[in-house]
């Protein structure tokens, strides 16, 4: 059962869907129909409104806002008092008189009515939460007059004039059970934001900090995405183990969405259209590989992992052509909104957590309304790919750790250690060089609440095999060779290669364009035992060429080197055609 289904069942158990016998016309957008003369409220709409209300309350907590909870129903007084005590919010439960706010502006007039002046309301609240809106219409009128936002439960019989004054309506039956659920959600929202505020001010206790990352190694002032941030680095081996039960893995993967930024054009490689349209093997493109891989996971585990493509206007049409052969799969395309750089900087002025491209894409995704749709489907995390990574990127172990530890943002990184001398001593110290692997795991709720995510940075050191990026034709040579095979549309590494690392290949400018690259190879050489290859100048490769060890081929200006059919070059340096004849 997904999280979404569980929440809907919880709503149904509180009778939140049971409305009055007659529903006003303006309320019918929240109704599912009627049965036995009773209005049935759509629980999905209630869930969306609950999420919006809690997001607004969370934003106010971050700004140290003042709340006032209004209730005149004695049946739920104890529930609300317990919520106020738990959260520490100040509440005025003496609002039984009209003019609780507006009359406080004129105390003399207020006293002339022979009523007590309400000293607890000297400062106007930033939000009024009303649990019985029908009985407190006067409160709604006064809060609306002072332009104070109102969060309130609404029912089908509420008049339009009252309904329009409620900023965040929550359509539901105001039963004791639902009020208890609503108060519980408010309590958890406030406590969550209070904990984040305390952590930002350095008030996190020593007992709390290890819960986030017990095996974390703290690396100070590492520059990531052009910023200086503290990074908590986790080794892949230290992550929490994932259950071997296929049903548990299915439940885990059902919380995931794969989001690919598909705006990279292949013009640098001579390709018109997106770089993801480059063919890898027998008509299979980079995008096909990703789609086929996700589909294989959905079939294997019986889950539903959707793929969202964020296309640029220049890559959208070509991408749609590629996806024509992928009909029937859970793929959606969004054209990247033209978000200005100022908007992106403003969204992350406190802490620029994402790279610019990521911020822009996430802002566009948020504006499109996709995040709310994903939350309704029970999705919790986005795996963001902003490069043409051909590796198998979905790892249940990473996803499980993020969920268990409630980590909102985590990037996959590689760590390279170098030896350097320290000043003042003759000993050496280890310096860590962090390379962003361009895969990021992001909590959807955190994006929906606040795009710049005031949170700690986490990174997971992963093996380089999880990053198979196609950046230039040197990478294309690796993927088209016998080092990788395309099995049912999925890229698999040849087990015959004993070296876990891929060979280092550097092709000269003569191979830069894909068309030139393809014209210089009659067939792609075998590189299973290759360690390093450098090719410069006018070089042509024949059929069935085998490359082993360290090979350098350098054609002088005005000369051409033709590698004959069936040639085997092992630990060779070729500077001219005569070197091939003498070998």
Automatic annotation (TrEMBL):
<dbReference type="GO" id="GO:0003735">
    <property type="term" value="F:structural constituent of ribosome"/>
</dbReference>
<dbReference type="Pfam" id="PF01704">
    <property type="entry name" value="UDPGP"/>
</dbReference>
<dbReference type="GO" id="GO:0006412">
    <property type="term" value="P:translation"/>
</dbReference>
<keyword id="KW-0689">Ribosomal protein</keyword>
<keyword id="KW-0548">Nucleotidyltransferase</keyword>
<comment type="similarity">
    <text>Belongs to the universal ribosomal protein uS2 family.</text>
</comment>
<dbReference type="GO" id="GO:0015935">
    <property type="term" value="C:small ribosomal subunit"/>
</dbReference>
<dbReference type="InterPro" id="IPR029044">
    <property type="entry name" value="Nucleotide-diphossugar_trans"/>
</dbReference>
<dbReference type="InterPro" id="IPR018130">
    <property type="entry name" value="Ribosomal_uS2_CS"/>
</dbReference>
<dbReference type="GO" id="GO:0003983">
    <property type="term" value="F:UTP:glucose-1-phosphate uridylyltransferase activity"/>
</dbReference>
<keyword id="KW-0808">Transferase</keyword>
<comment type="similarity">
    <text>Belongs to the UDPGP type 1 family.</text>
</comment>
<dbReference type="InterPro" id="IPR005706">
    <property type="entry name" value="Ribosomal_uS2_bac/mit/plastid"/>
</dbReference>
<dbReference type="InterPro" id="IPR002618">
    <property type="entry name" value="UDPGP_fam"/>
</dbReference>
<dbReference type="InterPro" id="IPR001865">
    <property type="entry name" value="Ribosomal_uS2"/>
</dbReference>
<dbReference type="Pfam" id="PF00318">
    <property type="entry name" value="Ribosomal_S2"/>
</dbReference>
<protein>
    <recommendedName>
        <fullName>UTP--glucose-1-phosphate uridylyltransferase</fullName>
        <ecNumber>2.7.7.9</ecNumber>
    </recommendedName>
</protein>
<dbReference type="InterPro" id="IPR016267">
    <property type="entry name" value="UDPGP_trans"/>
</dbReference>
<dbReference type="GO" id="GO:0006011">
    <property type="term" value="P:UDP-alpha-D-glucose metabolic process"/>
</dbReference>
<keyword id="KW-0687">Ribonucleoprotein</keyword>
<dbReference type="InterPro" id="IPR023591">
    <property type="entry name" value="Ribosomal_uS2_flav_dom_sf"/>
</dbReference>
């Amino acid at each position: 059962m997904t999280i979404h289904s569980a929440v809907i069942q919880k709503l149904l158990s509180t009778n939140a869907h049971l409305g009055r016998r007659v529903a006003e016309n303006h309320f019918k957008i929240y109704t599912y129909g009627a049965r036995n003369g009773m209005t049935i409220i759509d629980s999905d709409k209630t869930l969306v409104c609950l999420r919006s209300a809690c997001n607004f309350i969370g934003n106010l907590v971050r700004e140290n806002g003042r709340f006032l909870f209004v209730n005149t129903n004695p049946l739920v007084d104890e529930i609300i008092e317990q919520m106020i005590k738990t959260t520490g919010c100040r509440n005025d439960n003496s609002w039984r008189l009209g003019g609780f706010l507006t009359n406080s502006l004129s105390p003399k007039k207020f006293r002339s009515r022979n009523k007590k002046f309400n000293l607890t309301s000297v400062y106007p609240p930033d939000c009024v939460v009303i649990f019985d809106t029908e009985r407190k219409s006067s409160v709604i009128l006064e809060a609306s007059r002072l332009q104070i936002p109102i969060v309130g439960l609404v029912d089908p019989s509420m008049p339009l004039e009252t309904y329009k004054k409620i900023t965040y309506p929550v359509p539901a039956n105001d039963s004791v059970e639902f009020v208890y659920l609503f108060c519980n959600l408010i309590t958890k929202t406030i406590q969550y934001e209070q904990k984040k505020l305390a952590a930002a001010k350095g008030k996190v206790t020593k007992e709390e900090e290890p819960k986030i990352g017990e095996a974390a190694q703290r690396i100070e002032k590492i520059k990531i995405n052009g910023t200086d941030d503290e990074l908590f680095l986790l080794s892949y081996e230290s992550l929490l183990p994932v259950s071997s039960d296929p049903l548990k893995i299915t439940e885990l993967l059902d919380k995931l969405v794969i989001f690919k930024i598909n705006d990279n054009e292949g013009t640098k490689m001579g390709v018109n259209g997106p770089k993801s349209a480059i063919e890898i093997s027998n008509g299979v493109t980079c995008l096909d590989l990703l789609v086929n891989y996700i589909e294989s996971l959905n079939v294997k585990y019986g889950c539903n992992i959707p793929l969202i493509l964020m296309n640029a206007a220049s890559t959208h049409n070509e991408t749609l052509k590629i996806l024509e052969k992928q009909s029937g799969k859970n793929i959606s395309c969004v054209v990247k909104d033209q978000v200005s750089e100022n908007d992106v900087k403003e969204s992350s002025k406190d802490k620029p957590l994402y790279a610019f491209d990521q911020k822009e894409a996430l802002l566009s995704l948020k504006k499109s309304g996709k995040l709310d749709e994903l939350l309704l489907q029970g999705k919790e995390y986005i795996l963001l790919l902003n490069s043409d990574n051909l590796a198998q990127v979905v790892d249940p172990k990473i996803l499980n750790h993020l969920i268990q530890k409630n980590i909102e943002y985590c990037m996959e990184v590689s760590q390279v250690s170098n030896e350097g001398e320290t000043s003042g001593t003759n000993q050496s110290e280890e310096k860590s060089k962090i390379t962003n692997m361009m895969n990021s795991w992001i909590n959807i709720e955190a994006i929906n609440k606040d795009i710049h995510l005031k949170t700690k940075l986490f990174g997971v050191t992963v093996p380089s095999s999880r990053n198979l990026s196609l950046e230039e034709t040197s990478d294309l040579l690796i993927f088209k060779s016998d080092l990788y095979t395309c099995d049912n549309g999925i890229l698999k590494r040849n087990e015959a290669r004993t070296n876990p690392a891929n060979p280092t290949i550097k092709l000269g400018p003569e191979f830069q364009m894909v068309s030139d690259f393809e014209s210089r190879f009659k067939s792609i050489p075998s590189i299973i035992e290759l360690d390093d290859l450098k090719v410069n100048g006018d070089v042509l490769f024949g059929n069935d060429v085998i490359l082993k060890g360290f090979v350098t081929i350098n054609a002088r200006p005005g000369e051409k080197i033709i590698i004959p059919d069936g040639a085997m070059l092992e630990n060779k340096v070729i500077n001219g055609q005569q070197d091939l004849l003498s070998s």
